[in-house]
Design brief:
- The structure is a single chain.
- By secondary structure, the chain is of the alpha/beta class.
- The protein has 2 domains: 269 residues, 3-Layer(aba) Sandwich (Aldehyde Dehydrogenase, Chain A, domain 1), CATH 3.40.605; 190 residues, Aldehyde Dehydrogenase, Chain A, domain 2 (3-Layer(aba) Sandwich).
- 39% of the residues lie in helices and 22% in strands.
- A 7-stranded mixed β-sheet has the order 14-17-18-13-12-20-21, with helices on both faces. It has a 6-stranded mixed β-sheet with strand order 9-8-7-10-11-23, sandwiched between helices.
- The longest helix is centred in the N-terminal third of the chain and has 23 residues.
- The mean pLDDT is 97.
- The structure holds NADPH dihydro-nicotinamide-adenine-dinucleotide phosphate (NDP) and 3-phosphoglyceric acid.
- 3-phosphoglyceric acid binds next to loops.
Length: 479
């Protein structure tokens, strides 16, 4: 095992620095415990100083033309893409994501940034005439422009340490805001490398405070910081709810957990359904908020569907991220124990193991459980791991009822060859997005992306993300 004891500097006060206290957090690769680096554990005082500079820097940044801001971000995208292999290797090691997906995340991030800039150039305000309201004067013209909110707190999760950070940072910066970026601790090295590229691209360094440190230590402080004008968070529902309670009088966008169902009707193309379900449920070992996390299948086709899913699950490669395995070790012991606990409990309550249920430390084989009932925790809880429960239903109505009984409401899939029927079900599902005959997923990234109920607040997706970091600034010309 190789070790790397280097402390990777973070960006505070416009400079790359360690914590004055020299406090650090060790970052180890989840799949082999290799020490891949240490990141500074910043104190509240250090953060305070840096945040005041980040806030001050925003004033000048907002006066720049959007083309000037955009050109720096476009350069950022080019640098990221030119380092796809190197940055992909960092993501792969830090969060145990398979090599091709880790590199794919870098490319997707560059594409996301480019589209964000193009879309920002077209985000215009409005001009309104007073006389369109009863009694109003034609001599009054209201100019409603889009003004930056100020300083955005971007908090990212471990599972997309670059993409879900850049998707918060790029809209904020291009619209003239400054940024406090709190990366997930397991993901902080990827976040730092991403910001290094941003500064190389020409961004004034004081515009970003890179707040490395544990969320449990600095999270509440950042969320309640009086200089924060808006929070954009992706992560667990419990953390998101906590943030929404702590924050006060500022907009908050939250993208949280999910329990996305795939509803499979008796008239579905079962080969297609099985293919989409397996890709949706097990990619990145199920550590995606949009993963398919339960299948609600009509009794008449359940046996056939389970067989088809089983065949595909058995084809999944289980192993290490360097070997491009489909199923790789989970992010930490706690997560692996939690997933195993859900599987064990379901088995005790009568669920049938069709595939998987093998474990080597954090590496859990892709597990398929049949005959899961609504009495079992796995029917309702989000495992964030490679396990898929099959719940058999006798009617379309039962499928919709179980789908909607969840506390979550991110996405759902409906598989049917009858479009009218699928649309009828889609209308009834209490989720942000329904996918007809395809797996649940966030992309394409310019589509609105949102969760209802405990799955989130506000909307992401490029256009909505841009709107979320600006406000109307109205000037009335009285002629
Ligand atoms: N919807 C989604 O996209 C995702 C959902 N999840 C869900 O969340 C669970 C845990 O995953 P995880 O990534 O650890 O999610 P967390 O919610 O624990 O962490 C997400 C981010 O929030 C930070 N954070 C932690 N506590 C606070 C706080 N009090 N105030 C502000 N920020 C805080 C974390 O920092 P630090 O890393 O330092 O703790 C991290 O940057 C998963 O099992 C899954 O259910 C996870 C990832 C993505
Ligand atoms: O937070 C998540 O897990 C992501 O938003 C899911 O994105 P994906 O559907 O592209 O994997």
């Amino acid at each position: 095992m190789t070790t790397n004891t280097e402390t990777i500097k973070t960006l505070i006060n416009g400079q790359w620095a360690e914590s004055a206290s020299e406090a650090t957090i060790e970052i180890k690769a989840p799949h082999n415990d290799e020490l891949i680096g240490r990141v500074p554990s910043l104190s509240q005082n250090e953060l305070n100083d840096s945040i005041s500079k980040t806030v001050a820097a925003q004033e000048d940044w907002a006066t720049k033309s959007i083309q000037e801001r955009g050109s720096i971000l476009l350069k950022w995208a080019d640098i990221l893409e030119s380092r796809k292999e190197e940055l992909g290797a960092t993501i792969m090691k830090e969060v145990a994501k398979k090599k091709s997906s880790a590199e794919g995340e870098v490319t997707r991030t560059a594409d996301f940034i480019r589209y964000t800039v193009e879309e920002a150039y077209r985000l215009h305000g409005d001009a309104l005439r007073g006389d369109s309201f009863k009694g109003g004067s034609k001599k009054k013209i209201g100019l409603a422009e889009k003004a930056p909110l100020g300083t955005i707190l971007a908090i990212g999760p471990f599972n997309y340490p670059m993409n879900l950070s850049a998707s918060k940072i790029a809209p904020a910066l291009v619209m003239g805001n400054s940024v406090i970026f709190k990366p997930a601790t397991q993901g902080a090295i990827s976040g730092i490398k991403m910001v290094e590229a941003l500064i190389e691209a020409g961004l004034p360094a004081e515009l970003v405070t890179l707040a490395t440190g544990r969320g449990s230590v600095i999270g509440d402080f950042l969320v309640q910081h009086p200089s924060v004008d808006m929070i954009n968070f992706t992560g667990g529902t419990a953390t998101g709810e906590h943030i929404s309670k702590l924050s006060s009088m500022i907009p908050v966008v939250l993208e949280l957990g999910g329990k996305d169902p795939a509803i499979v009707l008796e008239d579905a193309d079962l080969d297609k359904a099985a293919k989409e379900i397996v890709a949706g449920a097990y990619s990145y070992s199920g550590q995606r908020c949009t993963a398919i996390k339960r299948v609600l299948v009509k009794d008449e086709v359940a046996d056939e569907l389970v067989q088809k899913i089983e065949a595909k699950v058995k084809d999944l490669k289980v192993g290490m991220p360097e070997d491009n395995a489909d199923i790789t070790p989970l992010i930490d012991d706690k997560s692996a124990d939690y997933v195993q606990g859900l599987i064990d409990e379901a088995k005790e309550q009568g669920a049938t193991v069709v595939a998987g249920d093998k474990r080597d430390g954090r590496l859990l084989n892709a597990t398929l459980l049949d005959n899961v009932t609504t009495e079992m925790r796995i029917a309702w809880e989000e495992p964030f791991g490679p396990v898929l429960p099959i719940i058999r239903v006798s009617s379309e109505e039962e499928a919709v009822r179980i789908a909607n009984d969840s506390e979550y409401g991110l996405q759902a899939s409906v598989f049917s060859n009858d479009t009218d029927r699928a649309m009828r079900i889609a209308e009834k599902l209490e989720v942000g997005t329904v996918q007809l005959n395809a797996k649940t997923e966030r992309g394409p990234d310019h589509f609105p992306f949102l969760g209802v109920k405990s799955s989130g607040l506000g909307v992401q997706g490029i256009t909505e993300a841009l709107r979320s970091v600006v406000r109307d600034k109205v000037t009335v010309i009285n002629m």
